[in-house]
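## retry 2 of 3
previous attempt timed out at serialization; input unchanged, resubmitting
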Amino acid sequence: MKMSSRIPVLVALALACLLAGCSAESKRLRQLERASEFRKSGDVERARIEYQNVLQKFPDDVTANEALATIWHERGATMRAMSYLTKLVGVAPGNYEARIKRARLLSSLGVRHEARREVLAILERTAVAPEALAVLVETMRGPDEFKATEEMLRNFPDKNTPWYHIANAALENLRGDRAKAKAALDRAVVLDPKSAPAHAALGLLQAAMNNPTAAAASLKTSAELAPLRSPLRLAYPAYLAQTGSVPAAITAITEITKQAPDAQHAWRALAQVALAEKRHDDALGFLGKALALDGSDYEAQVLRARVWQAQGDLPKAIAEYRRIGEVFQGLGMEKPHLGMALLQANDTAGATTALEQALAYFPDNLEIVMLVAQLHLKSGQHDRVVAAMAGVLSRRPDLIQPYLLLIESSKALGKLDALIAAFQQNLAANPKSALLHYMLGLAYWHQSKLPEVRRSLEQAVELAPDFIPANVDLGNLDLQEKRPADALRRAQALTNAAPKQAAGPLLAARVHATEKRWAAAEEAATEAARLDRTQAVAYGVIAESFAARKDAPGIAAMVDAFLARMPADDLGALRVAAQSFVLIGEPERGRDLYEKHLALTPNSTIVLNNLANLYAEQLRQTDRALELARKARAAAPGEPAIADTLGWIHYRRKEYSEALPLIEEAAKGMAGNPEVQYHLGLVNRALGKTEPALAALRLAAAAPGDFAGKADAKQVLAEMEKSR
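## retry succeeded, writing output
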């Protein structure tokens, strides 16, 4: 009886388990159905919650994982999309679309090797995922991978898909044959006129081929064809912003945020535009919206640190980059920016390490490659520079800067003759290469073989009359050989041939300055600066012209007239005018201009330092001077000139103990600078340290040339030696 009494209980338990299972399965299906309806109606957030609820009990559910991966991917939430795509690849390895999305995200984050492994695995298993070919081309590095990728394209069975031709175009572009690349993309568009990726690739190629009208048209077509949340919708406004149509770009991106307020990538795009325009508060506001949607938004966090860096808060930016690197280990997007921030903070060793790490993730980023090479050049690692530049030129033989670094490092290694021989050998095979003739001329210049220099540069100009660098250096050679009339004629020819380029006016300004025709030098240099604000030499000539005429009647009016010709926000003009007013004895006007500059760039270390000196030395407002110098020190803690300024202000305030370590740091960083030695001598004297004071003052007094305080240094030294 006991046995039989248990049977109904067991049956009931089994039935209960069966019913529970059926109930759970039914609930899962109902949740998936509701989620699907929410997505169809556009209520993506409620759909996301339903799918998330499914995964709480069924973590391997393919439908829910795929839907969540798509939702987060469409929002531009890279890290969240990546987690679901990774899960989906594990439970549904045959979902090639998901695997390609994952590979693209990995590639964008700098995890190139894993991205390449992913698409290779896809291509080994199927021929129905041609988009994988495009990712394969994007991720290849070095000749072996290039050869393997080329072979895979050649053997791919279906060559009548847009993606095949997009991949082939990318390969041809890397070979340097843009005509074939364009033909491939034209074919892709013919095969599928509604392919947004094909139109986007064509637009980017047209931009690289300097065809802005066609580029804008193709990118606009791509944006119109792409889904609302597709990253391709942002390529067109990004191009508009790059080409100066910022209001149109903002309008296009804002429209996306109106239709899809949860599109994180659109908020990031608005922040990038604002950052480029130095609207830092706006940029932070847009990033706040992205991070409110997803606090783990990796790209938004990196971009926010970039804004802090642009604002000049280097300690905060550096700390944030390092935190991001700890949280998102294995990714590299923050590392280039960390390197740049450390470089701004004068931490050269730390910057070099960070930038070298960045290169491991982004080996084709020429900006990083060149920057690391320049750092290696400064540290005397010339073999590394030569190897790196040879690698760059093997891929981009059209670039000038790698040649310049190659020449300089070859000279330091005593291998300039070998490099010249290599140039000559290449010229034998390519006798019509204006660039090679130009580089040969520059190499000869390093050997002071001026006739050979002139011959090579003239050959370069004969082959390419509009080759501006060769024309400019011929003008420089004219000046070196004391032929100013020839240089001036060359400057005029440059101006006539390229009236929108600064090269002609800048060369003319240098000729006039050499001849001490200061009014003409100023006029030409001002025109060069108006054409190109990055021309530091132009602003230098203007400053030199005012300094040479500082005692001339009406010099203040001349400075005012110069300022009136320049845009109100021209930072170089503000600095030159401020410096000039201080020099001619109008420090208050100099202060006002420096303060205006500071309002535009609150963390400019040059202006902070100059203004701190001005307040301390001429305006005798040491409180304001100390505030500015401390801010400059925080922004550039390793800059010796700023350490000297801050230390000297402490000395002026009779805070000698605070002054000494700063001045000592400056003296180490600016060895041989007599003014710093003068400061060091006076600080040591105030602290009763006679021998160090005498040593520093003797160096200052014996220095050739003049500096502010030299007479006082001699007088104090004489008094100290007399009293010994």
